[in-house]
Amino acid sequence: MLSILNARLLSRLSTAVARQPVLLVSASRLPILVARRSFITSIPLAFPAVRAPAKSTAGRKTATTAKKTAAKKKPATKKKAAPKKKPAAKKVATKKKAAPKKAAKPKGRVAAKKPVVKKSTRVTRAQAPPPRGPSPFILFSNEYGKNHKDVSIVERAKLSGAAWRALSEEEKQPYVTLSAARSTVAQEERTRYFASVDPDLLRRLNKQRIASKKNRIPVPRILRKPPSSFFLFLSEIRDPSLSAVENAKSAGAAWKTLPESEKEVYRERCLELTKEHKLKLEERAKHLPKSA
Question: pLDDT tens digits for 108-134?
Answer without folding.
Answer: 565 666 666 566 678 888 888 888 889
